[in-house]
Amino acid sequence: MLIERLNNWFNLSKQYFFTYKDGFFNLSYLSNSPEVMVKSFAKMPFMKNDEERQLLHSDTPFVKGDFHYAELEKGLWIMSSEMFYKNNVSFKPIYDNFLPVNYYFVSINLVENSYNKGSYEFNNFKIQNNSISFSKPRIDYINYHFKNSKEIMYIAYFDEAWLKKNIMESLVIPVSFNEFLLNKDKGFFNYSLTNKSFEPLIQKFSNLFKNSTKPNLFELKKLTYEFFTLFLLSLKKNETLNSNNLKPRDRFKIEKIEHYLLGKLHDKFPGIEHIAMKYKISPTKLKQDFKTLYDCSIFNFFQQKKMDLAYTVIKDSNLKIKEVSSKFSYENVSKFSKAFYKHHNILPSDIRKQ
After folding, report:
1. What residues in the chain have per-residue pLDDT under 70?
2. Residue 256's closest CA among 332, 178, 145, 339?
3. Own/partner long-range contacts of 22-28 (Cβ < 8 Å, ≥24 apart)
């Protein structure tokens, strides 16, 4: 049955592997389950599948990278994706109605966008934007990836039976998460990853996937259970889980605005009216949709990313604080230091003393 459905999907879709719309090359893939997903990617002509290492590799004019996968136990998979996007690319999950769809996923998303600015010393600067995502089954969540971005994901897929046995009976499950699971109107949420307790886990995942000739199932299983524990503990800080129930077109527009803002961090905030006019959206809807997707105001998002980049520049360059202040379009060092302290709880002049 599975092979038949995969062949059917492949024959119908092969001429449409990459389409182009709104500035993005679009790729669809079967997403009923992790097994179906892996097999559908493996059938694509531009993918190489190393079955012993359980590794898919792609190098096309659109994207280059590796995709590791492993079934750890019945109903539980772990995957690792490390991709560099040569062009704007979007991935859309599609579902075969003749195959079951009952897998949830939780993922760590590590995104590094590169921007080129010739007007100041740090010509090529990178902005990190890390987050945690959770999705119920059959959520048509299109993933947009911008040119010159590097993205690493660690994704745990688990079915309904595994969820009930291993999570729903957990003593540490937050009330907000339980309510989210029971709410039929909510299917997906995402929040910024600021908890440093995930850093050792991320490093361990990276080492296991990169250094093993084939998956070390025992170690991967231990790390995946650790991942779930950290995930549930991190949810306790989120009293309400913001479900990103934006329409695909609205979410796409907000993500384009986010990418635009990340490229303007050396400037002053462009202003709500300017952004709204540039992207043909009302100021009210812009503020509402941005808050829905990123759980903070558009100005606070911009300022946080600006100060994060300023921290990196101060730490990794020999520029004087006055020069850094000027590069980030502040009128004087005093105003820059005040904004910096608000976000980092330390003065910029004290960074190099650490």
Report:
1. 1-17, 115-128, 140, 171, 195, 237-245, 354
2. 145
3. 22/252, 23/88, 24/88, 24/89, 24/90, 24/144, 25/62, 25/87, 25/88, 25/89, 25/90, 26/89, 26/90, 26/91, 26/92, 27/62, 27/89, 27/90, 27/91, 27/92, 28/91, 28/92, 28/93, 28/94
Structural contact between residues 267 and 290, judged by C-beta atoms closer than 8 angstroms: no
Diameter of the chain measured on Cα atoms: 68
pLDDT mean across residues, the chain: 85
pLDDT at 235: 83
SS3 171: coil
- Give, as one character, the DSSP assignment of residue 350: G
Q: In the structure encoding, which two tokens stand for residue 310, read together?
A: 């300023």
- Phi/psi at 241 (nearest 5 deg)? -90, 115
- Which amino acid is present at 140? D
- With vertex at residue 78, the alpha carbon angle to CA 176 and CA 109, rounded to the nearest 5 degrees, is 60
The per-residue pLDDT for 338 is 92
| Pick from 105, 132, 106: nearest CA to 193 | 132
pTM above 0.85, yes or no: no
- DSSP conformational letter for 346: S
